[in-house]
Fold NAD-dependent protein deacetylase of SIR2 family.
Amino acid sequence: MTTHKNVSDLAVNVLQKIKSSKHISVLTGAGVSAESGVPTFRGEEGLWNNYRAEELATPQAFERDPNLVWRWYDWRRTLLAPLKPNAGHYALSQMENFYDNFTLITQNVDGLHRMAGSKNLVELHGNIWLMRCTAEGTVMENKNTPLVAMPPKCNECGGLLRPHIVWFGESLDEDILTRAFRSAEQCDLFFVIGTSGVVQPAASLASIAKQNGAMVIEINLEPTPISDVADATLLGPSAKVLPGLLNAMQKD
Ligand code: OAD
């Protein structure tokens, strides 16, 4: 594990690789949105009424008490509604123009990458602004905050709606998973940014990229289990490190 505080400290071969790579894959987690004001999951401020995400983001919790789960999502949606992408989100959307083949895989459900202009985006865990009918499976956008009816019901059939989010114990959408794995397998450079690297299958993507010959670069405030796999870890806030990286890429 090699850690650095500044982009300028990266080894010459790493900078060269960043500039010359053709196929880039990026995995982001809650840390990338922290500077927009979104609480991370495993930080203290991620708690709600003393519940941890793992206790509420499950099909069992929803079956037991849909109101409680929806109240948590209503709190999170209301908190997210006024927030804007930060310099890290924008740097990533600009990087997309720099490379021939660029895939941004995010575990975040906040929609901020899309708002920043990222296009080839894989939302692994869904999107908090989408709801799905538990009766018919229809997916619809709903941006009301706070929610008008609790729990929300489908306008078409009256069925109970749920967040269009992958919960603990649920499988990820197969097409989405295939896109994420394919991109990790085929890339020559893999960035992993602002994730604690403890939730699968996202956490394994860096190892898959590495096994297939990619250079892995991590950006985080602190070392994580992924740091052992990474060729370099840049320690710092992503809203500062990513614009620095973009700057370095654009230099001759
Ligand atoms: P975590 O909250 O587990 O981890 C956030 C990571 O971001 C930590 O490693 C922090 O050190 C780092 N971090 C915090 N602020 C940062 C900053 N400004 N710049 C860079 N890094 C920073 O969030 P995730 O790893 O995204 O799943 O969590 C993964 C999944 O677990 C989430 O998608 C969610 C959760 O339960 C579902 O909801 C299905």
